[in-house]
Amino acid sequence: MDAQGLNLTIFLDALSWGDLDCNSPKIRYARTGLLLSEELPSILQRWWKPPRVPGSPHARFQGATAALDNFATNCFSAIAEKELENLTPLFFSHTGRDVTEDELTSIKISDAVKSVQRLAPSLWKLFHGMAVTQWQKEKNTRKNPNKVSPENIFTIVHSHSC
User: Fold this and answer.
1) Which of 13, 25, 42, 142 could form a disulfide with 18 if both were Cys (CB 3.0 to 4.6 A apart)?
2) Domain ranges for the chain
3) Whole-angstrom Cα distance, residue 141 to residue 92?
């Protein structure tokens, strides 16, 4: 790299489609190998939160925490927007009027859950992760948090509408 006048930052930028001259078959193969590697998630994890040097009295290095936080927020915002668009047909009244109590209570929760999981998997994972604590995951190994009885939903909806 020194012979080419490159440092690690310039090299990574060029490798990551930042330089049209880095489009040779050998470079494309190496780039694809990195991007599809099993190691990439752990590399990114360590860039986000570098390991602390064992026995060091110093704080953990910041690494790319701020840059990756900002990047992840932007990525998830785009993903969430797309997934919310995917969900629009499920929650849109085609008649142009308010949903009646009969229409609302006729919704099969299990079907709605499956649709949301299929059409908005990232949002489902986020909301599910917020709704179920780590302790609950460990202790309630036989319970399925996706199962909700229609009677409970009707009770919740009815009590809020009164």
Assistant:
1) 13
2) 93-162
3) 35
Cβ atoms of residues 123 and 83 within 8 Å: yes
Q: 27-76 pLDDT, tens per residue?
A: 899 999 999 999 999 999 999 999 888 888 887 788 899 999 999 999 99
Amino acid at 100: T
pLDDT in tens, 119-159: 999 999 888 888 777 787 788 766 666 654 444 444 444 44
CA quadruple 35, 41, 47, 53: dihedral sign: negative
Q: Which tokens is 33 given?
A: 């190998």
Nearest to 68 by CA among 92, 88, 48: 48
